[in-house]
Amino acid sequence: PPAGWTAWNVYVFHPTQLLVEASMRALARPRGPQNRSLVDLGYLQANLDDAWQACGAGVNRSFHDAAGNPLWNARAFPNVSAMTELGASLGIEPGLYMNNCQCSENMFTDPAQIAAIVRRSAAAVARLGFLSLKLDSCGKLPRYRCHLGCILLKMAAISLLTGYVVEHARLRGI
């Protein structure tokens, strides 16, 4: 099973890029008599859970813009790519929670708009350097969750053929 750390267990609705980066460094810091880190012991995942999004800043008070791109809380997360790059440099697989509870999106009903949100969300996960994705039943848009997972799996398959940085242990088995 996946092993690592999630921001939710520590920061709940108040994570920041600085806090997540400090936690990643702590996972990778060697300690103890054997001078080994938690990463050395297989705790490879660091998951940014809820509260990264700019709730209410998007279309219909969502956290997606008109094109379907997820909107980040830029004050708390000024450079998401730098955060995921730090994690990768430490041997950590940065993860993201996409269908969140804090500002769950139950306002979308247009299939074309839902499809755009799914496509742009999947593209953002890959572009920003996340290597795992958490999806659960918290969000109120079940079709969104299903389609996002399917698109990410397809993106992972493409990455295996092209070498694009979407590959992840849990996605390689397709």
Architecture overview:
The chain contains five helices and four strands. It is of the alpha/beta class.
Report a brief summary of the structure.
The chain has helices spanning 8-11, 17-28, 80-89, 111-127, 142-162, and strands spanning 4-6, 45-48, 93-97, 132-134.
Biggest sheet, spatial arrangement of strands: 1-2-3-4
| Strand coverage percent | 5-15%
Shape: elongated
Q: What is the gyration radius calculated from CA atoms? A: 16 Å
Helix content: 25-40%
Structural class of the secondary structure composition?
A: alpha/beta
Strands, count: 4
What are the low-pLDDT stretches, counting only 5+ consecutive residues below 50?
Answer: 142-146, 160-174
Quickly count the helices: 5
Secondary-structure element order, N to C = EHHEHEHEH
Gap from first CA to last CA: 17 Å
- Average pLDDT number: 81
Biggest sheet features: 4 strands, parallel
Question: What key attributes describe this structure?
Answer:
4-stranded parallel beta sheet, 174 residues, alpha/beta, single chain
